[in-house]
Amino acid sequence: MKKIKIVLALLCCFLLLTGFTPISAKPIKKEFNLQNVSSTMDELNEFIIVDNNKFVLKLPEDVSLSKDLTAIVNALLNTSNVSVKNRNLKIDPKTKTAYEMVSNTDPILNNLSRNGVSILRWVAYTGRTGLSWNWNYVRVYLSGAVFTGVATVGGEIAKSKAIAAAKLAGFTGLWVSVSGYAILGIAATVGASFPQGIYIDLNYFGLATCGIGSFAGGVFGFGVSVPLANLVTLGPGVCGIMFGAQ
Questions:
Q1: pTM check: above 0.70
Q2: Which of 44, 26, 45 has its CA nearest to residue 34?
């Protein structure tokens, strides 16, 4: 018994002299996957940084993404980075947003044109018209004059004005159809209730999950098959579409 006490005393002295500390357990990793992220993927915003004018995913050691979510995130980042580069935009590192405004409250800008559509047709006295690009969605800004021009008419005239508004904001190609249907659907739903202008968020992943687009070769490519006008009335966030007042 005396020997045991001596051994224990020596062991305690050794621990004190060597500064021994208990080995702490490794932090539990949090994994994001398609089941625990929303259609907007806003849960990942804090892990997106701006590096060399590109959106980049930077995960801490205790966070990981599933394989399928990683592929989708990379596709979204690639889509936005290609758009920023092709449109010669600058990403603000603080807001992590690239702005592309073509009109504001200054009437002097009314003599400009965008994609063949004269801004003179859409006199922007209230709000602004243009686009801003984020890592996972593009925001469409429509002035009160532009949006009211769509919301106060109906039928084919409203459709043509919605398409013209999409072009004026800066969209080209299939984006015109996608954003045009979104503008048309929201205008039909809320009417002319945004006199100060409106913004519409089009989330790439949300659109894809609703069958509006598809991922092809790692790059998001639109295949418009479902009219967005039939979807935006279902509620905020449906198909990655959000909107509000400027």
A1: yes
A2: 44
Gap between the Cα atoms of 151 and 145, Å rounded: 10
Which tens digits make up the pLDDT trace of 128-179? Answer: 888 999 999 999 988 888 898 898 888 888 888 998 889 888 888 778 888 8
Domain boundaries, the chain: 30-86, 93-245
Of 142, 138, 126, nearest to 207 by C-alpha is 138
User: How is 131-190 classified by DSSP, letter by letter?
Assistant: EEE-SSEEEEEE-HHHHHHHHT--HHHHHHHHHHHHHHHT--THHHHHHHHHHHHHHHHH
Residue 159: Cβ-neighbour burial (10 angstroms; 0-12, 13-18, 19+): middle
- With tokens 């021994």, the residue in question is 20
The DSSP bridge pattern shows strands 30-32 and 63-65 to be parallel
CB atoms within 10 A of CB 108: 7
SS3 for 223? Answer: coil
pLDDT at 213 over 70: no
> For residues 166 and 115, what is the distance between their CA atoms, to the nearest angstrom?
10
- Model confidence over 19-75: pLDDT tens digits? 545 555 566 689 999 899 987 888 999 999 999 999 999 999 999 999 999 988 998
Residues 137 and 143: their CA atoms lie apart, in Å, by 20
